[in-house]
Design brief:
Layout: H1 4-7, H2 12-17, H3 19-22, E1 33-37, H4 48-56, E2 60-63, H5 73-91, E3 95-100, H6 102-113, E4 118-124, H7 136-150, H8 159-163, H9 165-175, E5 182-187, E6 204-208, H10 219-245
Parallel strand pairs: 1-2, 1-3, 3-4, 4-5, 5-6
Length: 258
């Protein structure tokens, strides 16, 4: 019930009454792009509350465009990279990648591959150190999905994603050093993934106290996001201002003398 309640909307009213939602500064985000990636089995709609909060604060959020986060890791990373590149072009610079659970480690793989597109990375309850560090029920669901894939259902996890070359490639990317600033948020009350596996050594850590599925509704998590996102937005704002002003007087070419 702790996991199903937030999915059904429990916690939404409390979040919208909290100062972190009510006292939103619409200029904070400066138009910085954010790509929000849902967790395992989730669609973009599952992260709608977080995207609305970002938009209220002046960011330009978009979904990952992956349909359901159930497919092969290699395929999803390729599609997510394309989405990130498109949003970076649309918003005028590198974007923030913000992913929940599996969405967080898919985001990390993109950040390792294309750091030029990523201003910052946020991973919410993402078991970077061991992607299979999950409760028995979650692993059972994974195995059922793999079984369906072997029976011919397309677009799902394959056995290679759990124990073959695809898994090895993902493991390499999850262990690789990051060239972008990152924040890993974990909860000892997670109940789905092992919280120690979320402590990416290449990221800053922040602890919250909520269930895995409640991370998109937890006011303390949103409060943890505010200063990190605002710092990245300041960098975006400075770059946009410099671009608007054009070359400085010292770098402008001298006028031609006739």
């Amino acid at each position: 019930m702790r996991q199903l309640g937030p999915v059904a909307g429990v916690g939404e009213v409390s979040l919208r009454q909290h100062p972190v939602w009510v006292e939103a500064d619409a200029d904070e985000g400066a138009g910085l792009g954010v790509v929000v990636v849902p967790g395992f089995g989730g669609a973009d709609a599952s992260m709608g509350t977080l995207r609305r909060w970002l938009a209220r604060r002046g960011y330009r959020p978009t979904g990952a465009g992956l349909a359901l986060n159930l497919g092969c890791t290699t395929d999803l990373v390729g599609r997510l990279e394309k989405r990130v590149a498109e949003h970076a072009a649309a918003t005028g610079g590198p974007v923030v990648l913000l992913g929940h659970s599996r969405g967080g480690w898919l985001s990390r793989l993109v950040a390792v591959r294309r750091p030029d597109l990523v201003r910052g990375l946020v991973m919410l309850g993402s078991p970077i150190l061991d992607p299979l560090d999950a409760s028995g029920f979650a692993l059972t669901v994974c195995r059922v999905i793999v079984r369906l894939s072997t029976l011919g259902v397309r677009g799902l996890l394959t056995a290679d994603c759990l124990g073959g070359a695809c898994r090895d490639d993902a493991a390499d990317g999850l262990a690789a050093p990051l060239q972008v600033p990152a924040l890993a948020i974990y909860s000892r009350e997670d109940g789905v993934v092992g919280w120690r596996s979320c402590q990416d050594p290449a990221a800053e850590w922040a602890e919250v106290w909520c269930s895995h599925s409640a991370m998109g509704k937890d006011p303390d998590l949103y409060t943890s996001l505010v200063p990190r996102l605002a710092g990245w937005a300041d960098g975006h704002r400075a770059e946009q201002s410099a671009a608007d002003q054009g070359p400085s007087a010292s770098t402008r070419p001298e006028p031609a003398v006739s």
